[in-house]
# Entry
Amino acid sequence: MKTLNIYVLKGFLLTFGMAIGILTFGMMGARMVKIFDYVSQGVPLGNFFLFVLYIMPIVLTFTVPWAILVAIMLVFGRLSADSEITAMRACGVSILQVVSPIMIIATLMTAVCLYLQVNVGPPLLGASRQLMKKTVIDSPTAIFAPGKPVRYENNIIYIDDKKNDILQDIQIFTMSGNNKVSKDITANKGKLVLDKKAKTLSILLYDCMVIDKTSEPEIRAYSERMKFTFNYGKEFNKFEVGKRAKYMTLKELLGRMKIEKKLNRNTCDLEVELNQRIAFALSPIAFMLLGLPLAIRTSRRETSVGLFLSVILAGLFFLSIILCESLESHPGLYPQYLLWIPNLLYQVVGASMIFKIAKH
# Structure
């Protein structure tokens, strides 16, 4: 029995390790591309590694349970397709004995995810947001990248090329209060002038064409030189005075709930945040219970089938919780309890299927 457990566990851990590496890299990819853009524009490389470190715990709370599901679908699907599960049962080995090491690992991973969700991940996620803010304040010129719009105050700025502080082919749209273009300014060349002490960023434009779209007909004017000055320090310090619930530790969240209740305020959003974290953290057990019987019953060696099923199951689970979380502004629907439905459904259905397989 020990040899059999080691055999199953070895295959599971190998697949789990590969899956968690690929999924974590994939989920962080979009954010890493944005930071790489900043690094290429002159932001210190150390900020990139700090950002990765800060968001890693929250990313792992998604990829760990998903990797468990992928590993279960692939390993037990292959064992069933090769009739190894049938052979084990013919020798008098219960399916519960076979999967017991996997259950222990899933339980341990649930404890890890719970710790990351309630204490480690949220404050580090808040730190990553502050890091992005600090990056922009320390290196505001880095956000100017060719082909990408940059919004400062009521201006949208496009550039075609950038070499150090010199800009080429610039277009600036000045927006009015009704979100329509009031001025369209183009320039062949420009220069960025940074004053870190005053936290202002000036754009000097040369050979400019200004189109006033508020008049009928449009008025066009030429200017040899124009200057735009933006208070980027003020712009990027527009953050909430209080800490948002999603960045609080468990102790802070419970403390805020207690204060709000004493003031007779609605705590639905705080309760949703708390229940959502715990529901996400318990997903490894839910995925294990549902994934095991599905993998055994599908009996497919093909990796694509297992991956497809794991994507569907994980996607439905996470999407359902996120949809329930979006109802926090409707306390009458009790979203803090609705978001437990996916967890309970996966666990009840999975446990009943495992029980049926174990009986036969």
